[in-house]
Amino acid sequence: MKLQIKDESGKTTTVPLTRDEITIGRKEGNTIRLTERNVSRTHARFLKKGEEIHVEDVSRYGTRVNGERITESRRVGAGDTIQIGDYLLSLEGVKAVEDIASAKLAAAGAAAQVAEAAKPLTKEQEKKKAEVEAAAKSQIAAAKAEAKAEKKREATLPPGQKGEATGEVNGDELRKSRGAGKKRIGASSPTLVAVTTHLAGSDYPITGETMILGRTGENDLKVDHHSISRNHAKIVVKDGKVRMVDLQSKNGIRVNGEFWEESSLKSGDIIELGKVQFRFVEKGEEFIFRPEDYTESAKVEETKKGGKGILVVLLLLAVGALAAVYFLVIAKPSEKSNVPGVNVPVGNTTPPPTTAPPQPDVAVAADTTAVAQVDTIPVPPPQVDNTAMIKELLDKANTAAGAQKWDEAAKHLEMLLALDNAHVGAKALQAKVGSEKAVETAFAEAQAAQAKNDLPAAWTALQKLQAMPPDSVYAARVTEMKNAVGPAIANGLMDQAKLALAKKQWNEAIAKVEEAQKVMPNHPEAADTIAKAKKGKADDAKKEAAKDPNKDPAKDPAKDPAKDPNAKSADDLYKEARALHNVDEAAALKLYEQAAAKGHASSNKQIASLKIKKGDRAGAIAAYKKYLALVPTAKDADNVREVIIQLGGTP
Questions:
Q1: What are the CA-CA distances from residue 422 to residues 414, 418, 428, 434, 637 (Å)?
Q2: Helices 455-463 and 424-451 sit at what angle, rounded to 10 degrees?
């Protein structure tokens, strides 16, 4: 199974799907990183369920399958297109998704229809069928006769009077009389209704708490017009109120004629985004859109759009003609713009007639229907100062973080970085919030296991927090839980070791002590129990040697692991290293490395733990990766991957 990824430029990358779960997002730590800004930090997850592939959206911007935004886990297969930001993803080596239920339903319906059609008609049904057919034939004959008579009558009329006898009107008048373009919109949610341009009459329901409006398909509200920026505005719904925030768009936001960086919306507001005007319709309001109500604004818009093509500058006119044109421009009435210092023409742009002095030897072709127009310089949108909003968002993020509301803090920071993606303080806080959220998740898992008295599961969850920052707000609580859970597990293992000791099961006793030391390295009974087990083991060996006086291990180093380290098995080396782990870390590390060289997987985990103590994160990450390469399906594989991510690596 492979995942094919195509970016906006058409470049294609193919990634093999070797894991049961992969994550896709912008931040480091995801299995696949997509770096465009319209990709969330963690955007989507792909899950392998047998031979099936499912995709889940976990983003703010949304994930689309075959153009439809998904709201729950969706099975995908060959032929499906998954859109994440500007990237298009498709699957190879996966069967196409077949809607078997729909196919069966359709087949059953068709079979039922065939069966129904095959039944003979009753006498009553045959009689009704004959009556319907006779009435239809009669109506068709009458319509043909009327059309023939009308055609004959029109042929006798003068050309200018054809159509008058029947009271016909021209096509435009007929369409207008029938309410062309008129729409009744009952808003079940707050809605923007376009009232100008070719989009007039289109409605855009606001169905989410936070939605992005822009020109391209990755937005929640797509407004396909060249004057709309790619990500133009953000719409936020809170406590029943709607507000719109400019996302540093090219043409800005105007509400009722005024430019705004952010504005609340109320019923009847006219919002201008670029050259498109919208009427805001509140939830529960019924709005009737009539194109003629907005024709004036549409004409002004068309004049601005087509002015450059219509204007003809006659450079050959004499000074008198230029003076007349100058007079027309200066004398033209103007309306004050919302942008200080700029006046733009309004109303009818046709200038009063003027008479230019006759110009001999100059032929000017004049169109009597043409209108002289003055092309105006486009007014750029005002430069928006986001300083106040950035400060407010940062304050809100700090407040939420102080209350340990990590999701809320992350949301404020994401909005802030959309306004200023280089804000150092926001980036630092974002990293802190992400780290604390990961710690909170693992700690909650440990608490849930402890509440069920499943101490091994609680301890496993706590191991995910090995790389927890020392200044974490959860540090004290995590330490407290470790101090409670760890000794309880260790004491249970030591009880098992003592039982094995009583049964003279020396190796079993040593193994249980070593397990206890993993949880509680300085257990007070560990050293004494191991010493007793080793002594018992040595005594047994002496008794065995006494039975065979000719056996001399000193003369056969290959059979004496203590004399020949190369003859020791990986398990023996690992056990010796565990005994020295908390006594002589350097010697233990050397033995772990010898065991790892012989293919002992768990030795790599112990190497990583010692590397962490020494501050060697890169060495620890490398050791953990070797462990995963040897046992990718180990029970603690997910935990190890989490630790790698916390150390700053990629599994």
A1: 12, 10, 11, 18, 36
A2: 170
- The pLDDT tens digits of the residues spanning 533-584 come to 898 888 888 887 777 655 555 444 444 444 455 567 888 889 888 888 877 8
CA distance 332 to 210: 44
Judge whether 282 and 266 are in contact, CB under 8 Å.
yes
Compute the distance between CA of residue 512 and CA of residue 496 in angstroms, rounded to an integer.
Answer: 7
Q: Which two tokens stand for residue 555?
A: 């003369």
How many other CB atoms are found less than 10 A from the CB of residue 575? 17
**Burial class of 366 by CB neighbour count within 10 A (0 to 12, 13 to 18, 19+):** exposed
Q: Which residues contact 503 (CB under 8 A, 6 or more apart)?
A: none
H or E stretch covering 205: strand 203-205
Give the C-alpha separation, 479 to 531, whole Å.
30
Residue with tokens 């129904």: 116
CA atoms within a 13 Å half-sphere pointing along the CA-CB vector of 36: 15
Q: Tell me the C-alpha distance between 126 and 122, whole Å.
A: 6
Pick the closest to residue 372 from 446, 317, 297 (CA basis): 317
What six digits make up the tokens of 1?
């199974």
- Which residues, listed in sequence order, are joined to residue 23 by a DSSP beta bridge? 45
184's tokens: 């009744």
Amino acid at 590: K
DSSP state of 75: E
Which letter, b or e, does each residue of 171-181 get, where b requires 16 or more Cβ atoms within 10 Å of its Cβ?
Answer: eeeeeeeeeee
**Under 8 Å between Cβ of 191 and 208:** no
CA distances from 453 to 446, 450, 490, 564 (A): 10, 5, 15, 46
Q: At 279, phi and psi to the nearest 5?
A: -105, 125
DSSP string, 549-603: TT--GGG-GGG-TTT-GGGS-HHHHHHHHHHHTTT-HHHHHHHHHHHHHTT-HHH
CA distance 194 to 124: 54
Single pTM value for the model: 0.31
- Structure token digits, residue 15: 């990634």
Question: Which amino acid is located at 281 in the chain?
Answer: V
Question: CA-CA distance, 460 to 449, in Å (whole number)?
Answer: 10
- For the chain, helix (H) and strand (E) counts, in that order, are 17, 26
Q: Hunting for tokens 């930001």 — which residue is that?
A: 85
pLDDT for the residue 571: 86
The amino acid occupying position 145 is A
- Tokens for 601, please give them: 């997987």
Nearest to 246 by CA among 220, 285, 214: 214
Identify the pLDDT of residue 212: 93
What's residue 586's pLDDT?
87
Rounded to an integer, what distance in angstroms lies between the CA atom of residue 188 and that of residue 207?
A: 9
Contact between 464 and 639 (Cβ < 8 Å): yes
Tell me how far apart the alpha carbons of residues 414 and 69 are, in angstroms, rounded to a whole number. 21
Is 206 within 8 Å of 191 (Cβ atoms)?
yes
Handedness of CA 135, 136, 137, 139 (dihedral sign): positive
* Of residues 10, 14, 7, the one with CA closest to residue 36: 7
| Distance, CA of 472 to CA of 436 (rounded, Å) | 7
pLDDT digits (tens, 9 = 90+) for 167-205: 343 444 444 445 567 888 888 899 999 999 999 989 999
CA–CA distance, 290 with 292 (Å, rounded to integer): 5
| Mean per-residue pLDDT over the chain, rounded | 76
